[in-house]
Amino acid sequence: MPLVPPDHPSPAFTVRVSTRGTVPVVELHGEIDLMATPYISRRLDGLARREHEGHPPDLVIDVTGVTFMDCRGLSVLVHAHNLISARHGRLHLTGVRPHLRKLLHLTGLDRTFAVQDARVGRVSAPCR
Fold first, then answer.
1. Could you tell me if 109 and 127 are in contact, meaning their C-beta atoms sit under 8 angstroms apart?
2. DSSP calls for 35-88
3. Helix (H) or strand (E) holding 31
4. Which of 27, 84, 105, 121 has the fewest C-beta atoms lying within 10 Å of its C-beta?
C-alpha cells in the first residue's frame, strides 16, 4: 500500500516501505523532483539512522517506478548514502532503468552506489 501522508505534496510520486529480512526496501514511483524530495528525504533519513540489533543500516531503494529524477532527487540519494556509509552500511539502488543509469553515469554516482539494472538484474558494486 502506498504511503501518502497528509504532508504529501503531490500525487506525482509515491513511496512504499517494506522489509526484506531486516533490510528496509523503499520503492519510489513517479517524479522525484523539487516537490517530492523533502518528503522522501525525511523518510530516507529515518531509515538511514536506524540500527537493527547492532547491524549496519543497509537500505535498498527500488527505483523501477521512477519516471523522472532531477538533481534534487540525486542529492537525496547521496545524503542517504552518506548517512548509511558513516554507519558502515550500504545503500543499494535496484530497478535502475536506462534513463536513470545514464544520469548516474554522467554524474559519477554509478561508482558510489551499488546499482542493479532493471533489465539485466546484475548488481555493480561501488568503488570504495
1. no
2. TTHHHHHHHHHHHHT--BTTB---EEEEEEEEEEE-HHHHHHHHHHHHHHHHTT
3. strand 23-32
4. 121
Calpha distance 80→40 (Å, rounded): 10
pLDDT tens string 19-64: 888 889 999 999 999 889 999 999 999 888 887 666 678 899 999 9
pLDDT at 14: 92
Give the separation between CA 44 and CA 24, rounded to whole angstroms: 10
* Residues with Cβ within 8 Å of residue 96, at least 6 apart in sequence: 63, 104, 115, 116, 117, 118
Residue 32 parent element (H or E): strand 23-32
pTM: 0.82
CA distance 55 to 89: 8
Give the separation between CA 16 and CA 77, rounded to whole angstroms: 16
Edge-first strand listing for the sheet containing 23-32: 13-20, 23-32, 59-69, 91-96, 114-117, 123-124
Residue 25 carries which side chain, given as an amino acid letter? V
Q: Which residues contact 47 (CB under 8 A, 6 or more apart)?
A: 17, 24, 26, 57, 59, 80
